[in-house]
Amino acid sequence: MAGYPIYKDNREFIKGLEKYGELVTVKQEVDWDLEMGAIVRRVCEKKLPSPYFKKIKDYPGFEAFGAPLATYKRLAIALGMDPDSTVPQIADEYVRRTSSEPIHPVVVDKKKAPCKQHVLLGKDADLFKLPGPMVHDGDGGRYLCTWHFVVSQDPDNGMINWGMYRQMVFDEKTMVGPVLPFSDMGKMFYGKYVPRNKPMPFASVISCDPLAGVAACAPSPIPEDQFTGMLMGKPIEVVKCETCDLEVPAHAEIIIEGDVIPNLTIEEAPFGEYTGYRTSPREPRTVYRVKAITYRDNPIMAVSNMGVPTDEGQLLRSFSLGLEMRKLLESQGIPITGVFMLPESTHHLVVVGVKPAYTGIATQIANLIYGSKLSPWFHMVIVVDDQTDIYDKDEVIHALSTKCHPITGIHKYENAPGTPLNPFASPEDRRWSKGAKVLFDCTFPLNWPKSDVPIKVAFNTVYPKEIQEKVLTNWKKYGFKD
Ligand SMILES: Cc1cc2nc3c(=O)[nH]c(=O)nc-3n(C[C@H](O)[C@H](O)[C@H](O)COP(=O)(O)O)c2cc1C
Ligand SMILES: [Mn+2]
Fold first, then answer.
1. What domains sit in the chain, N to C, each tagged with a CATH number?
2. Residue-wise pLDDT tens digits, 454-480
């Protein structure tokens, strides 16, 4: 299987980014304590190239790579597409690849797996040997795992899960982090291992190839090791862990193996979160006990800095959550023109374009979206008609403020599932993940007489096709550049 022109590890991806001007190599030493985090944050806020840190204070031999996928351009590069591809082009390609047949990983021998170049076991497996950054001031500790994934396996059906669940260093041998109960790992750990009081083997994979990262934070119903293969167009190479039967990507930079401990919690957080706020208090959370650490020669840490959008977390989650909603609506035969979740909304707001074929179509769309298993993550749906470009924020704002009736166009859903991180929710509602939802219906009612429907006054709506074509053909001749 030849696959797409993709990068098998972050080393190749870093070279790819450099080729397209999407990398800044930082040769000067940087401090893991806030400095590296502050640089990555500013890079996200200014939409700058990824920083590649060559020298980290106290950690000779280690390097770090920040904001790996914080722009659509870097996502296009990761997918092996033209770096200037538009968002709809990237979205169509993603849907095409992820609607194909699952591609299972292939197991390679340990000798062929760079992630085994250094193996630390027993007392040597000390988390402080790794340059976990203090990402934001005010964080509850050093977060070693900010752009990574946790591998786990269902004890009954053997299903593999790769998911991104943040992990803070507690001591040399312990990490701690939140695992939401509706996540795949949450359902597996709290639903199966905890009732049996059985430790759950885990492996945290830090700094894998870029597409494994895309898969790990995608809300995919397909196991993410196969989903990565679909994105790559060929199998990802995995290798067996040192201390359990799990398999991890052979070309990853750093692997941490161990057990998730049932019926024990340790306090974790606060942390700067994807919503752009610090919402979750320091509270008892899920405990990971470490048995082994393996890494490549001169390992490259990956560092993501969550905060005000956009960083890769919000960009990729918005992208993939929106596209899962597209697949859902299409599977139900709704005549949508597309779905786009704005990354600036930190995946809270979904824009759906539709041909308003019948009355109530916007409500039907919102009911499907809010009835889906992914609905805890978002709470605003804007439905626009096919005259609005869903990817154009200006057009969406225009439709919202002109077509949505402030009373009859807004539909509220109370008592809905949310997350503990919703900044608008009261502390009590956050504790119980209690949410609420809203639909903004920006379609004109179909029962209005045709003559009374306001006509949109724009270049492509009020001029005859011939005039539009003539003007576009002559545009440069008139003296305009674009
Ligand atoms: C950077 C980043 C950090 C995340 N941290 C957590 C976390 O700490 N706990 C959690 O439950 N979900 C977290 N998520 C969301 C999950 O990764 C997301 O739900 C993903 O789809 C999990 O996959 P699953 O469907 O296999 O559960 C995070 C996402 C990103 C992008
Ligand atoms: Mn999953």
1. 10-303 (2.30.110.10), 332-461 (3.40.1670.10)
2. 999 999 999 999 999 999 999 999 999
